[in-house]
Amino acid sequence: MQRHLISAADLTRDDAVLILDTAEEMARVADRPIKKLPTLRGRTVVNLFFEDSTRTRISFEAAEKRLSADVINFTAKGSSVSKGESLKDTAQTLEAMGVDAVVIRHGASGAPYRLATSGWIDAAVINAGDGTHQHPTQALLDAFTMRRRLVGRDAGIGQDLSGKRITIVGDVLHSRVARSNVDLLHTLGAEVTLVAPPTLVPVGVESWPCEISYDLDSTLSKSDAVMMLRVQRERMNAAFFPTEREYSRRYGLDGDRMAKMPEHAIVMHPGPMVRGMEITAEVADSDRCTVVEQVANGVSIRMAVLYLLLGGNEPAVTHTRTEEK
Predict the structure, then answer these.
(1) Residue 209, marked binder
(2) Residue 1's pLDDT is what?
(3) 55 is in an annotated binding site
(4) Within 10 Å of residue 317's Cβ, how many Cβ atoms?
(5) What is the distance between the alpha carbons of residues 14 and 12, in angstroms, rounded to a whole number?
(6) Is residue 184 within 8 Å of 8, Cβ to Cβ?
């Protein structure tokens, strides 16, 4: 039976905790002199990237190689896609090569779902980000980072994030990271508040399992984690806020605002950061900022997902997909 990871909304609480627990085991591999496991020896994984993403592609590639998989990297630029080849044709070419899993990033929301359900290929499909829809492994690595910092590395085994209060700030409208995190953090029992300018809040957000606020300062003192989002100018076709200075004044995180957060609270960012606008250098370089940890944890999470989809004995995700939000 095919098994895929398309959306964070598809994961049950037990699925998500299993992935986080498995990632803790995978993280120990990074402490070994030889950072390799034989789990996926003889398996072939294709990284099918129709959008540029150095950080995510390298993270997946590192995870695949640590599990001893054969790795093929595909980028649309300079490939047959730039000559007009369709997603179906590309998928069938990969199927003919006998790949076992496809990690896909695509600018169109729903492309990974289409690939997983079309019958074009039998390989497992992992969504590495599609349009403004979902980025499930980013949500998982964010949850993994929160659990380690807020619950504890060993104390967190088997635990979720019940009772934790998470604030997500910025360009929610264009952010698949925000959507994925709201879905997964709600599943894990956390209380999520979205903070954004009214122009950067999506239509229908009232139906999401979270609170909405337009005032960052009022949410900081009751947050266990504050996640800053990247302002995605490449997806904007209009002016969504007056100036960068105005955005920074109302929604940027600086030292004064960080001081209002509880002492144990952490600052997160999916990267790449725009310093001076979304976050000041003082905050980005502080001990409370987990950006570098998030990058390292991304490899462990992606190893766990690949292991559970291709090499583990227990299922990591459900086989049926919930409705898109």
Answers:
(1) no
(2) 40
(3) yes
(4) 25
(5) 5
(6) yes
Residue 138 labelled as part of a binding site: yes
Half-sphere exposure (Cβ direction) of 165: Cα atoms closer than 13 Å = 12
pLDDT computed for residue 32 by the predictor = 86
pTM value is: 0.91
Is 106 flagged in the annotation as binding? no
Q: How many residues does the chain have?
A: 325
Residues with Cβ < 8 Å from 139, sequence gap 6 or more? 8, 177, 180, 181, 183, 184, 185
Q: Which two tokens stand for residue 21?
A: 């627990």
Q: Is 272 labelled a binding residue?
A: yes
Local mean pLDDT, 10-residue blocks, the chain (325 residues): 84 96 92 88 93 90 96 76 74 88 93 92 94 94 97 94 96 93 97 94 92 95 96 71 85 95 96 86 95 95 95 54 44
Residue 271, annotated as binding a ligand: yes
Residue 193 assigned to a binding site: no
Q: What is the rounded CA–CA span in Å between residue 175 and residue 162?
A: 24
Distances 299 to 50, 75, 173, 193, 294 between C-alpha atoms, Å: 21, 20, 27, 27, 9
Q: Is 176 annotated as a binding residue?
A: yes
Cα separation, 301 vs 270, whole angstroms: 14
